[in-house]
Write a structure and sequence with these properties.
With 477 residues, the protein is α+β, with helices and mostly antiparallel strands. It contains 10 helices and 25 strands. Strands 1, 2, 3, 4, 5, 6 and 7 form a 7-stranded mixed sheet that branches.
Length: 477
Amino acid sequence: MVPARSIFFDKHNVTTHDLEIYLTEALSRGGDYADLYFEYRINHSIVLEEQIIKSATKGVNLGVGVRVISGEKTGYAYSADLNRENILKAARTAAFIANVSSSGGTMQVPVPLNQARLYSIPVYPADFEIAQKIALLQQADHAARAYDPRIMQVQASYIDETKHILIVTSDGKSSWDLQPLVRLNVMCIAEENGKRQSGYQGGGGRRALDVFTGDLDPQAMARESARQAILQFQAVDAPAGPMEVVLGPGWPGILLHEAIGHGLEADFNRKKTSAFTGLIGQKVASELCTVVDDGTIPFRRGSLNMDDEGNATHETVLIEKGVLQGYLQDRLSSKLMKSPLTGNGRRQGYDHIPMPRMTNTFMMSGESAPEDIIKSVKRGLYAVHFGGGQVDITSGKFVFSASEAYLIEDGHITAPVKGATLIGDGPTVLRQVTAVGNDLKLDQGVGICGKDGQTIPVSVGLPTIKIREITVGGTEK
């Protein structure tokens, strides 16, 4: 059950008087603003391989980060425990890093308010017995092996997180949250005539074990992983060259996230290193494209009651009918760019500084039927799932490998292909969108986003879209 008060007050003996002392110390050399980020996180990880549990780990993290902002300068330090003297030392260190010397003031700290609304659940992941979690992996393993005798290896993994945070700011804001997160992954390796192929499927969200039903049932995910692996035995070499490409709904939104989303984060634009710098109000995409970042969708992997600066998350329209509307803002960029906060200040943990990051990022549905989009392509590629990729934020150039893709010939999806990569740049791809389907779908809850050494959970989404031309790197001779 959701507690009535933050765990930091009830179990760690933090008081509002302590919070005031820490903030006063953080501003002892001046500074425009200071905040405290308390975190208590419990993680579990279980891996099943070769039908046995290969590893089961539990991690506990506890600490507090102190930030001081003075103009464009930021000082950040942290304590890996809640010892009062260590937190005061971190506050003094952050003040010195911010490099200010004028005398600071004190402030009154209100009692923190619980922000729970997007993922309030009766039982949190940390409270379930390990046997219940292992049972999910065993179900996945059995279903994958039963799918086809060519499935030779199955690896199933389970990860969960139960995170308590408390954020207190020098401008009088104070709030806390209890954030659940679960994820289950299944990887299958199939073998035929000495050749091996692999498939992957996963899912989860900000819930507990009850999320693993329907499409996210462990057996359903296992069968999907096995299907992908077996499918590759039928695949032909991918063609190469410029061609029409249709992206399927859901996970292919990772291309939107990487090639476009990062370029819309405010810090890159404040530093003038993004392909979208200075283009607000200008057309940057086809008029069919409306791109949104929304951290308020209940139970989604990228959703948050509040960001990691204590600000409410929002539905932020980034591109509307092809026109750039704005960027994703954290507190610092919002102040320096004189733009409204969007609730996108995020961090990996108490030992990391917040920065503008995505939450759930997707393109809105259009009006075209997906089957009509396929019928309109004479020769092209239909990409359904993606593996790894590389993106340059400054230019928006990307290379993505398609883990499941098909030829489109005369308006019909035909042979699966292997070895296909998509090569292009985000801004150009946006302008080349010629059809947007009415079938928006979000991914199943597996997104992990990296930036400046920090990883955070996110979601992506996309309806079926047609792109006039992308360079396809293939293996066809």
